[in-house]
Structures
1.
Amino acid sequence: QLQLVESGGGLVRPGGSLRLSCSVSGFTLDDYAIGWFRQAPGKEREGILCISSSGSGINTAGSVEGRFTISRDNAKNTVYLQMNSLKPEDTGVYYCAAQGDAYYYCARTTKEYNYWGQGTQVTVSS
């Protein structure tokens, strides 16, 4: 059974940093691309970053370019989302998800992802 579990969310002041973790089980990171998504209240879910199963393909949304980065630790079966220079508009529930057949390239559209975590809340506020 494929499972993804997010952790690391919380309350942070504008300009601060957080690192989210996505721990996966039931599969390896060599087989699935992992994407990070977020959803603010009243808005659609937005794909912000993903890393392909080879690790060589990273797809970044313009809204987080230069502030957020994605990385992974295959030995720990964990993907990280490092978020720096956080803004109030980064507030939302953050999800990680798994996409199959994405060796060199990963998509940031929700329809490409079959497996989802439960989400973790990130609030950026002073």
2.
Amino acid sequence: QVQLVESGGGLVQAGGSLRLSCAASGLTFSTYTMGWFRQAPGKEREFVTAISWSGGSTHYADSVKGRFTISRDNAKNTVYLEMNSLKPEDTAVYHCAAGYARSSLRIRQGDAYNYWGQGTQVTVSS
């Protein structure tokens, strides 16, 4: 049974930082592209960032480029999201996802991912 479990969310002031983790089990983690998506209240889910199976390729939404960093540790079956210079508009539930997307277009699309975590809440106060 595949499980993706996010952690590290919380309440932070604008300009602050958080580090999210997503621990995976029940799958061959090192073969999967891993992505982070977020969904704010009343809004559609949106792509945040993704990392290739090897960690050699990363992709970011324009809204987070230069502030967020995705990384992975295949030995620990874990993907991370380092979030700096947080803004109130970053407030959302953040979900990690696993899939086999490879192209730069498909890697940004939620339906390219097979497995999803329950999410962790990130709240940025102004």
3.
Amino acid sequence: QVQLVESGGGLVQAGGSLRLSCAASGRTSSSYAMGWFRQAPGKEREFVAAISWSGNTYYADSVKGRFTISRDNAKNTGYLQMNSLKPEDRAVYYCAAGFKYRSSGLGSTQSEYDYWGQGTEVTVSS
């Protein structure tokens, strides 16, 4: 079992920045991909960004150039740096861990992830 805890959400003005963190505990001795997804009110959960154990990254087009995903494997923690935030970025952000992949793999669909955090809310005011 793996437990994931997100933090760093909050209220920010449009154009501002936030940094989300995702702390993993439990079965973290194996390599795993980490992903960030978000769910806006009334919408389905969607992919935001993913990072492999070795550091390969992949982004949704809607956040490319504004968001940066990273991780510190020694600390079992992942990060999502969000810059130039827009009102449409408002959502609950979830991190996820996927053990399907080994060192360099990552996924962009929810089914590719095995464990999920409880989410952290991001609100962007216009």
